[in-house]
Amino acid sequence: MKKYVKVVGAVIEKDEKILCAQRNGEKSLPNMWEFPGGKIEDGELPEAALKRELMEEMDCEINVLDKIVTTVYEYDFATIELTTYYAEMVSDSIVLREHQDMKWLSRDELDSVEWAPADIEAIEKIKNGI
Ligand SMILES: Nc1nc2c([nH]c(=O)n2[C@H]2C[C@H](O)[C@@H](COP(=O)(O)OP(=O)(O)OP(=O)(O)O)O2)c(=O)[nH]1
């Protein structure tokens, strides 16, 4: 059976723009865009996992706000359960430690990059202001 992996993603909004991060070319889903975050460890609360991942990946402290949606998506390499949360930055800067690029996009611009398929449901909700 395929691996079932629980993942959290942060939808960080600042000045009406949303932080979008581009995956590394050597990883699964190469060059695709996603929300920063990652796998929940055993016994970890989703919100704590999100704060930890943002520190590890972007050297960025966040406050986790409302949950957006949980989507289960079956890739060929794993089944991913992605839960997205709105979040706000506490730190005022970002250091890209794992992603190859980042962009701040308005809701209207979100379709201008190629999102990981598991993210599409969240993108639709965000575009509709949910
Ligand atoms: N962080 C994050 N991961 C996502 C999103 N959408 C999506 O399909 N994923 C997938 C990519 C990865 O397979 C997995 C998250 O794993 P990870 O971030 O901890 O680890 P990773 O990039 O090294 O992934 P992997 O190469 O081990 O598969 O979830 C998203 O919006 N944010």
TrEMBL record:
Carries keyword Transcription?
A: no
Keywords noted in UniProt = DNA damage, DNA repair, DNA replication, Hydrolase, Magnesium, Metal-binding, Mutator protein
Question: What is the top-level taxon of the source organism?
Answer: Bacteria
Q: Which InterPro entries match?
A: MutT-like, Nudix_hydrolase, NUDIX_hydrolase-like_dom_sf, NUDIX_hydrolase_dom
User: What range(s) does the Nudix hydrolase domain occupy?
Assistant: 3-127
| The enzyme's E.C. designation | 3.6.1.55
Instruction: List cofactor names only.
Output: Mg(2+)
Q: Which family does it belong to?
A: Belongs to the Nudix hydrolase family.
Please give the name of this protein: 8-oxo-dGTP diphosphatase
